Structures are given as structure tokens and as C-alpha cells.
Amino acid sequence: MVGRPAVPEVIWARPERAGRGPKPAFSRADIAAAAVRIADAEGLDAVSMRKVAAELGCGTMSLYNYVPRKEDLYELMFDAVSAGYDLPEKPSGDWRADILALAHQARAMMHRHTWVPRLMSPVYGFSPNALAYLEYALSCLDGFDARFGEKMELIAMVNGVITTYVANEIATAERGRSLPWSPEQEQEIRTRYLMSQIATGRYPRMAAGFAEDPGPIDLEGVFDRALGRVLDSFDR
Q: CA-CA 20 to 30 A from 215: which of 135, 198, 223, 230?
């Protein structure tokens, strides 16, 4: 395949253009933007070198001169959406508040680009915007008395909570859109059935729990509490 390396390489270490010859017709930013448009509209599985080439108006084979592998294309996409973070010039000094604010930005970004949770991997952490995000997150922890490895573990665990939570939100929303009835109608039916089962007396702990807190569940509160418990485990 044209341009495909025989050994592992990092796309960011590969020159975007050769030192000589004509100016390339497209930039990495052009390619990433085209791929992101496809993924946003049709999902990550719809992204292919053929579709991106068609979006750009070039031949599929010529695209390999810019992006040797599909995995490199994913990395370009991840970097492109990571540019959407609004990173202050410097943190506030309250490391918990700063990490939580960053977490809410990450959650919002994943909802804008619902394919991102599938690409959350350390493999895609070497891009310029991903490194800028990580450097800022570490700067938020300047006042947190811990070794570098523990700070990295904290960031990884926070990102894990965000990714898991958002992936569940996205899956729930996608399921709701696929049904011939509204989510509210289904919730009503399922709640009615659940209450009928609890009323049998076979589930006394659940009955006591619902009597204490009948709901509804505050999903925003659950998100913040989950993150808070992660931070509590490090805050000492």
C-alpha cells in the first residue's frame, strides 16, 4: 500500500510534507475535519479512507500519502476534537474544582462527538492537543501533594469515569431513538412493572429504598458524586 510503513511510527513524527516538491493539496487538518464530519453524521464505523477521500475530492490511494494507516486517521480525528477544550491560561489554584471543570468539558465534548469514547486510549495521547490537555490537567494538580505517577493515575481514573458515564448516556439515547415509542412512555411502563414486583413483598430492601427515595434519579448529581468519590480517594 502506498505510504504505509513497515514498522511502527507515530504520525506526529512523520513530516506533514516533504521538504521538496509541490505543496500538498490537503493538510492533516483538512483530512481530520473531513473524517470528523463523517463520524459525527454517520458514526465511527462509517469512517473509511474511501469516504474521507470522496469527501475531499481525491483518490483513495493518494490519501495514503498523507495518512499511512486508518489508525493514524483516528489519531488525527481525536486530536482535532481535542482542540475544542477551552483551557484557561492557568488554573484557579483549587485543584479539585479545576479537575471537575475539565471533566465537564470532556463530557460535553464527548456528547458533541459521540464516537470519541470508543477512541479513548493511551495510544492516542501523543497528539499536540492531547498533550496540551494533559499538561493543563497536570498543572491543575500543582497544588496536590503527590508523585507524578499518582497524578497520572488520578487523571486516568477521572477520564475513565467520564468515558464510562458518557458511553452509557450515549447508548441509552441511541436506544431511545430506535424505539417506536418515547423514552418517557417506556419509563412509565417499566416503573409500573417494577412497582408491581416490589409490592409482592419479595424485595423488602428495594421496597424500603424506594420508600426512602422514590426518585427520579438526578443524573447530573450522580456524575458529580462519582467524580467526587474518585477525587476523595486521592485527597488526603
A: 230
Could you say which of 31, 57, 82 is where a domain stops?
82
The number of angstroms, rounded, from the C-alpha of 47 to the middle of its chain's C-alpha atoms is 17
Beta carbons of 231 and 141 less than 8 angstroms apart: no
For the stretch 101-116, pLDDT in tens is: 999 999 999 999 999 9
Total-model pTM: 0.84
Helix axes 70-82, 128-140, angle to 10 degrees: 50
Instruction: Answer left, alpha or beta for residue 201, where phi above 0 means left and psi between -120 and 50 means alpha.
Output: left
pLDDT tens across 69-104, in order?
Answer: 899 999 999 999 999 999 999 999 999 999 999 999
> 166, 110 in Cβ contact below 8 A?
yes
CA distance 213 to 78: 40
Cα separations in angstroms, 90 against 138, 145, 160:
11, 18, 24
**Residue range of the domain that includes 203:** 95-234
